[in-house]
Write a structure and sequence with these properties.
alpha+beta
């Protein structure tokens, strides 16, 4: 799970989260992206992939896009062996 956020010029927080890297009924690899000002009522999109490398590439691309647009890392949890190359990027853009 990775949650990003940014504040617009009016100070309103916008959130973007990636989660549920679990199998999907129609594909072996998937994750859900949710975004909005209130994650309890967020818009969602499920991404489905045939292999882990394509899924990881999409996750990296989405994170890169959001960080370029001014988002910061609010929270991240990755399993110990999961996406080791992403950890330094998440740490660099951590809020604080």
């Amino acid at each position: 799970m990775i949650t990003l956020y940014r504040a617009d010029p009016a100070g309103t927080a916008h959130y973007y989260t990636l989660h549920d890297r679990q199998g999907h009924l129609f594909s072996h690899y998937s994750f859900t992206a949710a975004w909005g000002r209130n994650l309890a009522r967020a818009r969602e999109k499920v991404y489905q992939f045939d292999n882990q490398s394509d899924m990881d590439a999409k996750i990296r691309g989405l994170i890169r896009e959001k960080l370029t647009r001014g988002y910061k890392v609010l929270y991240s949890y990755l399993r110990p062996n999961e996406m080791p190359g992403l950890r330094p990027i998440l740490k660099k853009y951590a809020a604080g």
